[in-house]
Amino acid sequence: xxxxxxPISRFSAFALLVLFFIAAPLVMSEYYLTLLSLVxxxxxxALGLNILLGYAGQLSIGHAAFMSVGAYTAANLxxxxxxxxxxxxPAGGLMAAAIGIIVGVPSLRIKGVYLAIATLAAQFIIxxxxxxxxxxxxxxxxxxxxxxxxxxxxxxxSPTELYYFxxxxxxxxxxxxxxxxxxxxxxxxxxxxxxxxxxxxxGISVFKYKLYAFAISSFYAGVTGVLYTYYLxxxxxxxxxxxxxxxxxxxxxIGGLGSVLGSVFGAFFISLLPIAIRLVMENVGSxxxxxxxxxxxxxxxxxxxFGVLIIxxxxxxxxxxxxxxxxxxxxxxxxxxxx
Length: 339
Hints:
It is a single chain. This protein is mainly alpha-helical. The protein has a single domain, classed as Orthogonal Bundle (ABC transporter involved in vitamin B12 uptake, BtuC), CATH 1.10.3470. It has helices at about 5-25, 30-55, 65-80, 85-105, 115-130, 135, 160-180, 185-195, 195-200, 205-230, 240-255, 260-285, 290-315, 320-335, and strands at about 145, 150, 155, 235.
């Protein structure tokens, strides 16, 4: 009731749960369930970055590095010590949180683009350590194969089973984030984001809460890395390079900074838009361009259209997709009256 005080909000949340938990697996093919599974994983990572950037105001370009920490932690625990998934998942998150605290220490003295450069340096440092430490990366290929997770004695092999599991994790992450931002810690994050000097004056320990933000965000990132590892069956540093950090940064900016629902919107947008563009280009482009030429240029054209659409959405609504949703919701709330 605290999260959804209005009846319409509670009804909408219940309807979405029914849609994704019951209707989607019944009517969708395994391919589309796979896409939704990847969106669920991306949602967890986007929530973590939004806590750091949207709520605490700390710019980070090293989100993928913390994902790799969680991924390799879980992969090593699973392969070398044969630990179950229920242990490796939080362990990967906690290890990423510990590294995040270390990276967050400079945030006391630097902010803005300078902090972004510091997190970018952490991205490259963590990548280098993983690639040059065979005991961590698993050898020359820097990849570790991991078996699918097992819960209650059942191995999650089918796309439907993995979809249900990842959806539950995403829902738990959303609820946890909603409660976090409504707590004393969340309000302290917002105070630091809006004016850190004023927050210090009223008694908020800026440095402590900045470290909290880095730790919580890195924990989410580590869990995301673990989920990717178990879902794909391998931990590889190529899955967590700088481009992935940029993708997650785009998710929270396009979805809406300082918004839990915006993180979900951004995860859907960034995860599914390239696939939608490819499908449209394959079906429409084949009518005007030779198949061989289309196959060679579709990757470049998809990247160009992807960038153009991102710029377009930011021009139309700089506050993100969440603001568009609020505008639509407010319109229907007062309709048919103008005010």
